[in-house]
Amino acid sequence: MVPQSQHMPSSTPPPNSRPVVTCSDVTQTFTRGGASGLFSRSASGETVTAVSDVSLTVSTGEFVGIAGPSGSGKSTLLHLLAGLDTPTTGTVTLSGTDTQRVSSRRRTQLRLNHVGIVFQHFHLLPSLSARGNVAVPLIEAGYSKQKRRERAESVLSQVGLDDRIHHTPSELSGGEQQRVAVARALVTDPDLVIADEPTGELDTATGEQVLDLLSEVADDRAVIVASHDQQVLDRITRLVRLRDGTVEAIEPQP
Predict the structure, then answer these.
(1) Going by C-beta distance under 8 Å and a sequence separation of 6 or more, which residues neighbour residue 204?
(2) Beta strands, E only, the chain
(3) With respect to CATH, is domain 18-252 assigned 3.40.50.720?
(4) pLDDT tens across 233-243, in order?
(5) Against a cut of 0.70, is the pTM above it?
(6) DSSP 8-state secondary structure symbol assigned to residue 58
(7) Which whole-number Å values give the CA distances from 79 to 72, 73, 194, 195, in the listed order?
(8) Phi, psi (5° rounding) for residue 251?
(9) What mean pLDDT, rounded, does the chain reach?
(10) Are 108 and 97 within 8 A, CB to CB?
(11) How far from 47 is each of 68, 80, 210, CA to CA, in Å?
């Protein structure tokens, strides 16, 4: 791993960087439906604004943090930036495509080709090996079985797990599982990597190792991390502070 003191993304995107994802005047509302209290867009009930009038552009070479208290809209904003959902109003442009103007199937393909997602709770398939978990996105991408194996093994080697490729999640530590999750996010060589509380389940030392990986990734991709962990916030190039669904501030980091 590259030590933090020797590898920090710069505070501004490099000269040849390009926008990867842009949201413009984005608002996302849901309706709290009936006795179940579940959110939907069609149920009758109280309307809740999860994100309100947010504008943000993230380019290659940037490591952007999103912070805010619980319920501030961090997860909703991540879902919009990743193309997992579309805004109620405003636009999200991901790798040159307006996510609202394409079909659900096209958005799925857009995510597959351009977005890697690292979940807080890893979301690894328990019956598959590390290599099998990393290779899952390549199945939908149409890779042959041999190419899937080669690519998955290559990325696992990059995250320091070349000796663990045949181990299932139950045979891996929490830090190793998170590195498998990072490898899975990188296996399609995406333009954008999104991580939701990537150190939330990890001890400090293991969290630093995962952050080393994400810092390295940010050299030639856009990386967006939602977290309130100070060790994450110490690594980022810009911080987006959310409160009650609105942007309080966007702060460049030293």
Answers:
(1) 231
(2) 19-33, 38-40, 45-59, 63-67, 89-94, 97-98, 115-118, 192-196, 222-226, 238-243, 246-252
(3) no
(4) 888 999 999 99
(5) yes
(6) E
(7) 14, 10, 9, 11
(8) -115, 125
(9) 87
(10) no
(11) 21, 18, 38
